[in-house]
Amino acid sequence: MDKQEIIQITNAFLVEEFEADGSKITPDANLKATLDLDSLDYIDLVVVIENNFGFKVNPEDFQGIATFQDFYDYVADRIKQKELV
Fold this sequence. Notes:
Elements: H1 3-18, H2 31-35, H3 39-53, H4 68-84
């Protein structure tokens, strides 16, 4: 799966699951502020990621994720790790 596919899949489920405005989802936008995430929303986000990409998410991984680009990079890295196993 390439980076563009990851971005398309991710943006689609963010718009659907979190009722986000797709036009505000840009690589440099702040993930938490744009999606108006609270602690329960992060749990939902973890479940959606695991269901869509097939890897386990550690909640503490989100501490280093501020922007959508950080999020895309995280997903891409985890998919790459999964493929190497």
